[in-house]
């Protein structure tokens, strides 16, 4: 209890003013919390992310098409995660049919056709392939991609730039507002991924010197450009500096991408980082994080124009059960 509320010299009016201020601060915090997590926003940002991410997954799986029999049928050496009949590797013919359904679902998702069903179908097959085969590689990008697909099922990303809107409203560019919650979850997951990797490198003994980079440039993942750098016999001190720069970048990027003054620098740094890894170590899958940086923008920055609120929206100051975004608040004030 605040002592000023119980001291004998405090007037009833002062106590009421203090309580009112505390109540107002609580309401302000809750309003900002709801606004950041739950407000309704234009769907354009999430639609752009859906198209890019869906196209990336379509490419990721399409290049596996020549190896479907080896990767996902009983002709390959598969040891499913669970010894259940449903996860028994199928024949090559069935494996190709199942894989075709996955590619069709990903194409449908990218085009925004039955977006939610397409995303759920894609996730279902992704999990299936993870259980019968992909889990053996233990790759973090597969888990990140599956989690992103799960969130996109409920994101409303098909509410513009989609066949759904073309069929529903007669235009690809027609749109309906969506909740910002899915975007916040995805952006925080990406930030947490960078932060976790950075802190891990900070404490792991192998990452305390630049030798780990030399091993990488001469290891199984190394490419010809990496071998060329290793043959230059650059002093270890330079690798030490690069090692600490990598750790500093990965620890700071989860914070820098949120601020307008620094985010473009971190976007450029992230792009250079992932492209460099793809060139030097042939680890290209994390390039998908580069277009995902769009999730750190506010949706209103990407929308082509604010919506025209209905009189009921303006009167209530809300849309449905979600807090409205600034253009509607301005309209309510008559701005």
Explained architecture:
There is one protein chain. This protein is mostly helical. It has two domains: 40-170, no CATH class; 191-300, no CATH class. The chain is 64% helix and 2% strand. Strands 1-2 form a two-stranded antiparallel ribbon. A hairpin with a 2-residue loop joins strand 3 (318-319) and strand 4 (322-323). The longest helix is centred in the first third of the chain and has 27 residues, at 12-38. Residues 1-10, 15-19 and 307-335 have low confidence and may be disordered.
List keywords for this structure.
335 residues; mainly alpha; globular
Q: How large, in whole angstroms, is the Cα Rg?
A: 25 Å
Q: Considering DSSP H and I runs of 4 or more, what fraction of the residues is helical?
A: 55-70%
Distance from first to last alpha carbon: 42 Å
Overall outline: globular
Beta-strand residue fraction: under 5%
List the secondary-structure elements in sequence, H or E: HHEHHHHHHEHHHHHHHHEEH
Number of domains: 2
Mean pLDDT: 86
Largest sheet, spatial ordering of strands: 1-2
Structural class of the helix and strand makeup? mainly alpha
Tell me the number of helical segments per DSSP (H or I, 4 or more residues long): 17
Major beta sheet, specifics?
Answer: 2 strands, antiparallel
Low-confidence stretches: 1-10, 15-19, 307-335
Oligomer: single chain
Brief characterization of the structure:
The chain is mainly alpha-helical.
